[in-house]
Amino acid sequence: MPRLSRLLVFTLALISGSLAASPAPPLAPRAAYDQQTRRLENFFRTKTQDEASLRSIYTRDAILVEADGNTIRGRDRIARHFRQVLASGAVASFKVTTTAFRSQGSISYAGGYEDIAEISAIAERHSRNNFLVLLRREPDSIWRFDYILEARAPDRP
């Protein structure tokens, strides 16, 4: 019995120690942006339609202005929109290339382009959008997309 008691005390000490441990330090702005961007690319790669996961990378009042002018306001609507796009299977690939990143306090912005391959009944179409993303560090110390502005990139020669 003493051995079982010691094992129980040791186990309880481990559990209480892990509960008391401080959470991981918040990520630096660029690392957080890169992480959120990779998550977004992964949603498209795996066709993830989990709205909670999709919502988690946007602020509550996020705004998405797509290249065609379609404007979507609020993370719930953005998540529903992407869930529908992903469910359709129309996007074969989605890759983000960041060419600029700046940060000041709790706001950061990134710019670059997105390469998108879409599949239709007729053919596969490739397009490129330029983007500007504003990120905001929220009270929980997580950086989330707050404003996304996309524009069709000029055709490449």
Describe the structure.
By secondary structure, the chain is α+β, with helices and mostly antiparallel strands. The chain has one domain: Nuclear Transport Factor 2, Chain: A, CATH 3.10.450. It contains four helices and six strands, in the order αααββαββββ. The chain is globular. Residues 4-22 have low confidence and may be disordered.
CATH class: Alpha Beta
Mean pLDDT: 86
Domains (count): 1
Report the sheet with the most strands, covering strand number, pairing sense and barrel closure: 6 strands, mixed
Biggest sheet strand order reads: 2-1-6-5-4-3
- Structure class: alpha+beta
Topology:
Elements: H1 2-20, H2 29-46, H3 51-55, E1 58-65, E2 71-73, H4 75-88, E3 91-104, E4 107-119, E5 124-137, E6 143-152
Parallel strand pairs: 1-6
Antiparallel strand pairs: 1-2, 3-4, 4-5, 5-6
Question: What's this entry about, in short?
Answer:
The chain has 157 residues and is an alpha+beta fold.
Notable features of this structure?
alpha+beta; six-stranded mixed beta sheet; 6 strands; Nuclear Transport Factor 2, Chain: A; 39% strand; 157 residues
